[in-house]
């Protein structure tokens, strides 16, 4: 097949960066999104429609060689219709597993991975039992549809649990022990299957700092032992094999007392992998497109030993201020500024940890100077 077309469900920045990475491979892109302002429209044709409109979705994928997601919550009924027409990756199993926090945690346990103590909350009575069993402090999270810390409440006192649950709509939740972590890390990995043979690779483990529940910076490699980094890679391989996964995915972990605890996974390219655009031989976006097209993966090796990313949230900086620092690579998503909204990121790379920390500090300063 010489010319391929890939359809992407969701037209946000992830879709945009997937198309930017896949276009040099001779692949065309189109997007489906409920918003006519979806920022991926700059890099491919945009179809505007709702996720439950199976007919519109079927028309959208007509002529596509492969379909993938940047938005994981497409209703099952729509997916049923799509899968009868075209290859959709990652699989239903991967989406179903990762879109429900309880199912996801049980899956990790079945893979032999350590998770924080947790309990299911479907009623006020179950909440009381969950808090009594898991203890405080804990964190209540909606089972589905949460992202960037949305739909979460910390519970420090058992008496405050019911009001916390009501404040997130008294919907089905997971209640987890609050992990006193030393670090948060994530692994971004890729798996493809070419003529029946699976190929797996992973980027170096990233170390993540969040602000107000939103990822702020990623530094890679994470400052953990080689043994722990290898354990994270092995966990990713196990998860990928169990799900017969095709594409890029990420697993987020807590590191507490030298132990790796799995928090959650994302069945898609991940914010903590944005550094790979300039930092790795093959970016996470290109590898995802390769995988969903049934092509071999490119190397996940970093070009320089140290890499970092800082997110731009809630503002759009003037490029002049950021580009004044020749070490900074700027990625703006073409989105209007809104509180808590990711509008871009900056990547930096370096030969040493010290040089990287300096570059990262400069990038953050440049952002502050551009009133970001
Ligand atoms: N059980 C926990 N213990 C400690 N911190 C947590 C816990 N769960 C979530 N957090 C914090 O909140 C952030 C967002 O939670 P997460 O489970 O990753 O949901 P999402 O990224 O889907 O919003 C985490 O990166 C972490 O900083
Ligand atoms: Mg998360």
Structure description:
The chain has 372 residues and is of the alpha+beta class. It folds into 3 domains: 4-88, Rossmann fold; 117-177, 2-Layer Sandwich (Dna Ligase, domain 1), CATH 3.30.1490.20; 183-369, D-amino Acid Aminotransferase, Chain A, domain 1 (2-Layer Sandwich). It has 12 helices and 17 strands. The protein has helices spanning 13-22, 54-61, 76-83, 92-98, 101-110, 124-134, 161-167, 226-242, 276-279, 284-292, 319-323, 353-369; strands at 4-9, 27-33, 45-48, 66-69, 118-121, 138-142, 152-155, 173-177, 183-194, 197-202, 206-211, 214-220, 247-256, 259-266, 306-313, 329-332, 342-350. A hairpin with a 2-residue loop joins β13 and β14 (259-266). α1 packs across α10 (284-292). It is globular. The N and C termini lie far apart (45 Å). The mean pLDDT is 96. Adenosine-5'-diphosphate binds at residues 116, 139, 146-149, 176, 178-179, 181, 184, 210, 213, 252, 263-264.
Query: What integer is the average pLDDT?
Result: 96
Q: Separation of termini?
A: 45 Å
Q: What percentage of amino acids are in beta strands?
A: 25-35%
Could you say what the CATH topology of the largest domain is called?
A: D-amino Acid Aminotransferase, Chain A, domain 1
Q: Report the helical percentage.
A: 25-40%
The beta-strand count equals 17
Query: What overall geometry do the principal axes of the alpha carbons give?
Result: globular
Q: CATH superfamily of the largest domain, called what?
A: ATP-grasp fold, B domain
H/E element string?
EHEEHEHHHEHEEHEEEEEHEEHHEHEEH
Largest sheet: 9 strands, antiparallel
Contiguous runs where pLDDT drops below 50 for at least 5 residues: none
Given the helix and strand composition, which structural class is it?
alpha+beta
The radius of gyration computed from the alpha-carbon positions, rounded to a whole number of angstroms, is: 20 Å
Provide the CATH architecture of the largest domain: 2-Layer Sandwich
* Number of helices in the DSSP assignment: 12
CATH level-1 class of the largest domain: Alpha Beta
Named once each, the bound ligands are: adenosine-5'-diphosphate, magnesium ion
Overall structural domain count: 3
């Amino acid at each position: 097949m010489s010319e391929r077309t890939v359809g992407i469900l969701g037209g946000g920045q992830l879709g945009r960066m997937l198309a930017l990475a896949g276009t040099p491979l001779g692949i065309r892109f189109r997007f489906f999104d409920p918003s006519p302002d979806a920022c991926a429209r700059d890099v491919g044709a945009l179809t505007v429609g709702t996720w439950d409109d199976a007919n519109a979705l079927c028309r959208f994928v007509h002529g596509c060689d492969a379909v993938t997601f940047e938005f994981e919550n497409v209703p099952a009924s729509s997916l049923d219709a799509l899968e009868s027409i075209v290859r959709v990756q990652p699989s239903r199993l991967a989406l179903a597993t990762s879109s429900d926090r309880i199912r996801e945690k049980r899956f990790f346990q079945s893979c032999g991975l350590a998770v924080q103590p947790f309990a299911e909350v479907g009623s006020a009575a179950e909440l009381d039992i969950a808090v009594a069993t898991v203890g405080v402090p804990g964190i209540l999270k909606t089972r589905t549809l949460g992202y960037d810390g949305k739909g979460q409440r910390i519970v420090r006192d058992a008496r405050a649990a019911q009001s916390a649950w009501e404040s997130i709509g008294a919907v089905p939740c997971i209640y987890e022990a609050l992990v006193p972590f030393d670090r948060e890390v994530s692994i971004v990995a890729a798996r493809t299957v070419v003529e029946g043979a699976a190929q797996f690779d992973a980027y170096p483990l990233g170390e993540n700092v969040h602000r107000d529940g939103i990822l702020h910076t990623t530094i890679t490699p994470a400052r953990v032992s080689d043994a722990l980094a290898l354990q994270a890679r092995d966990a990713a391989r196990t998860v990928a094999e169990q799900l017969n996964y095709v594409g890029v995915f990420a697993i987020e972990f807590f590191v507490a007392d030298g132990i790796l605890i799995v928090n959650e996974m994302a069945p898609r390219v991940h914010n903590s992998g944005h550094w790979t655009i300039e930092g790795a031989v093959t970016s996470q976006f290109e590898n995802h497109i390769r995988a969903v097209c049934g092509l071999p993966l490119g190397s996940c090796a970093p070009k320089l030993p140290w890499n970092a990313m800082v997110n731009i949230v809630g503002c759009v900086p003037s490029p002049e201020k950021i580009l004044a620092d020749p070490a900074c690579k700027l990625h703006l998503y073409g989105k209007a500024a809104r509180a808590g909204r990711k509008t871009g990121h900056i990547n930096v790379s370096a030969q040493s940890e010290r040089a990287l920390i300096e570059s990262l500090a400069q990038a953050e300063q440049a952002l502050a100077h551009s009133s970001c």
